[in-house]
Amino acid sequence: MDRITPKIKDTTPIPGLRLVMLHAPVSEVVTIQGSILGGDVFSPADNPLLASLTADMLDEGTQHHSKNVIREKLESVGASLEFGASQYRVWFNLKCLKKDVPLGIRLLAEQLREPAFNEADFLVVQKRIIGSLEQNREDTEVQAKIARGRLLFPKGHPNYPYNTHESIEYVKKASADQLKDFHRKVYGLGEAIVVAVGDFKEDKLLGEVEKAFAGWRMNSLPKSMEFVPALPSSRENKFITLKDKENVDLVYGQALGITRDHEDFESLRLGIRILGGDFSSRLNWHVRNRLGLTYGIVSGIGGYASGYDGFFSVRGIFAPSLLGRGMNESENQIKAWAEHGVTSEELGQKKKTVAGEYVVALETTNGLSSAILGVLERGKPLEYLDEYPSIVQAITLDQVNSAIPKYINSNSITKVAAGSIDSEGKPLNS
User: Are strands 80-85 and 89-97 parallel, antiparallel or unpaired?
Assistant: First the structure.
C-alpha cells in the first residue's frame, strides 16, 4: 500500500479548526467529513439526550433557509449532507461534486452555526423519535443490549444505556428552546476537524472553509472528561420475555477497563476477532456452520469509539427452541478460548484479514476520510494511518494469549437473552 501521509495537506485556516485535505484519484467527487465537540457527554444532567436531539435538528432548517429549501438545493446537484451525535462529538458527512463544493461548505457551516430550532419542526422530530423508541420496546436486539449495558456500567458512565421508557420521557420533556440554549452554550470552534478527500482544488476549498466558519465562537469544552468506572465483573444472567418473536437475541458482555489507546488493546481485539470476528472465526465455524444452531454469531469490543473503556461483546441469534443448546455451545467455545488462547495459525490468518480489510476500506473517498478523521479525533499523528498495518503485523502470539486471560474471565461474563422465552430462558411454547 502506498503511503498516505505524504499526500495529505494539514492546515489551520482559522483558530480552532483543523482542515486536512487529500487529493484522491476520483473524477469530480468530493467527500467531506468532520466533527466538533458537543456529543452526548455534554448534555445537562437533567436530560442526557439533549445533545443527540440538538444534532437531530441541524438539518431541520436554519435562520436563513427552511429545511425544504436546503434539501432542494442539495438534491438539485446530487449532494448529500448528514449530521449526528456520538458520545463526545457532533459529526457531519458531506458528499458532492467538485463544482458544488462552495455550496456544500456554505450549507454545512450554516446548519452547524445557525440552526432555526423552530418549535413546529421540533414537534415533528420529537414525534418521530418517540415512535422509533416505541418500536424498540419489541426489538429483541435493542432490549438485550440495553439490559446488558445496565449490568456492566453504572449510571454516569458513557456506556450506560437508558431504557426505552426513560429515553421516551427525556425526549418528551425536551423543548426547542432548550435545544437552542444547548447549541448556544456548546457549539463552536475549538477541536473542530474537517477532512476533505477527493477531486478538488486545495486553495479554493481552504478559502471556502475559512470564509464559511470565520467569526464562529470558540467553545471552552474539555478535550477529555473523567467518568465513573465500570461495575465489577460478575456472572449476571437475565432473560427478557418478548412474545411472538421468531428469534431470540443472545448477548454476552464483560467490561474491560481499558481504552483503545492502551498497550494491550490491539492484541486483545485481534484475539477477540479470532473468537468471533467473521465467518471463519471459532464461534461461527462451530456454533453456526458445524452445528447449525444459530443464524449468526459475532464477537467484538464495543463502547471504545470516543476514548472510553469498552467492553467485550458476543451476540448470537437463535430460534427459541435452540437457545439452550446454543448457549451451552457458545459458552464452551468462549471458555476454551479464554483459558487456552489462540493458535499461531489462527493469528497469522487473522492478521492477513485485518490488513486486507484496512486496505480495502481506504480505496474509497468515504473510507479514507473516515480513517483520517478517526485518527485525528483520537489525537494520533497522521503517520498512524500508514503505521497501523505494521502495528497489527507486529503483534505476537504471546501478546494475544497474555491479553485474553488478563481481561476476559469466562466465569464472570454477563449474559442476556430477549425473545419468546420465559424468565429461565425456556421457549414459551414448550
Answer: antiparallel
156 phi and psi, to 5 degrees? Answer: 110, -15
Residue 293 CB: number of other CB atoms within 10 A? Answer: 21
What is the separation of C-alpha 35 from the centre of its chain, rounded to a whole number of angstroms? 13
| Residue 27, domain CATH | 3.30.830.10
Q: In angstroms, rounded to a whole number, what is the distance separating the alpha carbons of residues 104 and 269? A: 38
Give me the residues paired with residue 241 across strands. 419
Residue 240 bridge partners (DSSP): 418
As a whole number of Å, the CA-based R_g of the chain is 23
305: confidence class by pLDDT, cuts 50, 70, 90: confident
Q: What stretch of H or E contains 56?
A: helix 50-56
Alpha-carbon span 199 to 196, nearest angstrom: 9
Nearest-5° angle of CA 276, CA 282, CA 283? 60
Cβ count near 71 (within 10 Å): 15
- Domain end point (choices 213, 248, 277): 213
Inter-residue contact 216 to 184 (CB < 8 Å): no
Q: Verify that 204 and 242 share a domain, yes or no.
A: no
* DSSP secondary structure letter of residue 296: E
C-alpha separations of 23 from 27, 30, 103, 149, 202 in Å: 11, 9, 19, 41, 8
All three cell numbers of 407, joined, read 481481561
Short-list 3, 208, 10, CA closest to 96? 208
pLDDT recorded at residue 167: 98
Mean pLDDT of the chain, nearest integer: 96
For residues 251 and 145, give the distance between their C-alpha atoms in angstroms, rounded to a whole number: 7
Contact criterion met (CB below 8 Å) for 151 and 231: yes
d(CA 141, CA 318): 12
- CB-CB neighbours of 195 under 10 Å: 25
pLDDT digits (tens, 9 = 90+) for 165-203: 999 999 999 999 999 999 999 999 999 999 999 999 999
pLDDT of residue 1 exceeding 80: no
| Same domain for 111 and 59 | yes
The three-state secondary structure class of 239 is: strand
Residue 257 in any domain: the answer is: yes
Residues 337 and 195 in one domain: no
364 and 316, same structural domain?
yes
Contact residues for 149 (Cβ-Cβ < 8 A; gap 6+): 159, 160, 161, 253
pLDDT in tens, 120-153: 999 999 999 999 999 999 999 999 999 999 999 9
